[in-house]
Specification:
Shape: flat
Radius of gyration: 28 Å
Number of domains: 2
Distance between the termini: 72 Å
Structural class: mainly alpha
Largest sheet: none
Helix content: over 70%
Number of helices: 3
Amino acid sequence: MNQVERARIIVMIDKLEKEKRSREFKLSGMRSDNMAAWNTYGSELCAGGMEADERKIEEEIEDLRRKIVYLKDNLRDDKEPKADLVLLESQIKGLDDEIQSRQTQKEALQDNWVWASFLYKVCSGEQQ
């Protein structure tokens, strides 16, 4: 990884960390507001909606956290992004090819099963 790529990663980490802090602050405020509203209005509120809103922000925070960790790990490991991308694309292509081959084998076996089933029914007198 060259210096420009490292700098871009550092800038992105900083941006993501700021966004994460902003979301955490928003979540904290939302929880306080929700708790106050619940204490005031109780069961008249839709607690499920409040929890869903909180959960959505929690998921956003977790997504940001995972991105930050991923970028920091790659910065530390000094990986070559393009090389990793090419390798992963190649592995995916290999798996796609293997899946297609297996699907073809499965279809051939299913076809043989249909014919064997037909023969069995004829021999057992089930098929007339």
